[in-house]
Amino acid sequence: MLSRNAANLYWLGRHTERADYLCRLIDATVRLSALPATHGGADTAWEAALKASAAAAAFAATGRRATEDAVAHFLSVDQAHASSIRCCLENARNNARAVRTALTADTWEAINTAWLEIQRFGVHEPDTATVVRLVDSTKKALQAFDGAAHRTQLREATYWFIRLGTSIERADNTARLLDKKYHILLPRGEPVGGSLDYFQWTTLLRTVSAFNAYRWVYRDSVKPWLVADLLILNRAMPRSLATCYTDMVFQLDQLSADQGRRGPANRLAAAMLRRLGSTSIDALFQSGLHEFLTGFIADNNRLGDAIAEQFLF
Q1: Structural Rg of the chain based on CA atoms
Q2: How far is 229 from 282, CA to CA, in rounded Å?
Q3: pLDDT by residue (tens digit) across 45-60?
Q4: Is 51 exposed, middle or buried (CB count within 10 Å of its CB: 0-12, 13-18, 19+)?
Q5: What is the percent of the chain where pLDDT is above 90?
Q6: Of 137, 153, 169, at which residue does a domain stop?
Q7: DSSP classification of residue 110
Q8: DSSP codes of every residue in 36-83
Q9: pLDDT tens for each residue of 115-127
């Protein structure tokens, strides 16, 4: 496969996963912002959303205040923000169009429909009701894309590059979301384990569609260390860091088998998976969960660089 085709498929996976994450993040932030500002709602929640999407610096450069309308617009349909949902879907559609012949009709139609769907919402600041409709519509369109790729694509390089992009983006998003809740969101003076803390952790679980999974696995009230265990180390959880790296090791092995050789990306992914498999949640909390997550995000970025060097250039 030509490296430019591999790059388009890889970024098709990354852009669609990023758009899905932003939909989930906005949906969760709307819930959190319903709380009074004195209890961690309103502006606090939207500022945390910017940090959880790695967009705080880009938003600050606009000179706008982090209000609900401004941040929701910036993350959803702002054409000037390269990582808004609209721009992610536009980029994903362009990636897909560049490799149109490698995609099944169902896969192409699903991503094209997602792009056409978000265009209906325009580019101006949406009100809360419009934001809710936008994220719900986009999530459904992206689920259709994911299902079409899973059900109709051959299990060869085209599929593995899409899934590799999805996995590395999902790992980054899960780590950022967990870090921002643990390290930033709870206001000073609020007790850990209090009603606000419980509501925020529950909202985080709902953001990654893991609330029912949490109750099924732990059969306990929502506790930070158990949420972290589920989202970091539990390989039965589709969005956990351990599952993302299990998938990446497999996907990289499939691509390397096609090429007949392994490379630095294979070794980095395998090393991270061994690291996740050899630790416990108690050890992570003792050494510092924030430090672990920031280190993980940096290592995940290095893996992205290694993938680009090994396959995409």
Answers
A1: 19
A2: 9
A3: 888 889 889 899 999 9
A4: middle
A5: 68
A6: 153
A7: H
A8: -GGGT-THHHHHHHHHHTT-HHHHHTTT----HHHHHHHHHT-TTSTT
A9: 999 999 988 888 8
Q: Which position has the token pair 């990654």?
A: 208
Same domain, 126 and 194: no
pTM: 0.92
Q: List the structure tokens of 48.
A: 């945390």
Residue 71, CB-side half-sphere exposure with 13 Å CA sphere: 29
Instruction: Provide the number of structural domains found in the chain.
Output: 2
Kindly report, residue by residue over 174-215, the tens digit of the pLDDT: 999 888 776 554 444 444 555 666 777 888 888 888 999 999
Pair (132, 23) in one structural domain: yes
253 versus 45: the higher-pLDDT residue is: 253
Reported as a single tens digit per residue, the pLDDT across 10-33 is 999 999 999 999 999 998 888 877
Distance, in Å, from the CA atom of 244 to the CA atom of 176, rounded to the nearest integer, reads 14
As a 3-state breakdown, the chain gives helix, strand, coil percent values, each rounded to 5, of: 75, 0, 25
Find the domain containing 223 and state its range.
Answer: 154-313
CA distances, 133 to each of 127, 128, 207, 250, 290 (Å): 10, 9, 16, 36, 34
Residue in the block written with tokens 């970024």 = 11
Helix and strand numbers (H, E) in the chain are 15, 0
In angstroms, rounded to a whole number, what is the distance separating the alpha carbons of residues 91 and 97? Answer: 10
Total count of residues recorded for the chain: 313
Across 54-80, average pLDDT: 92
Pairwise CA distance, residues 20 & 83, whole Å? 12
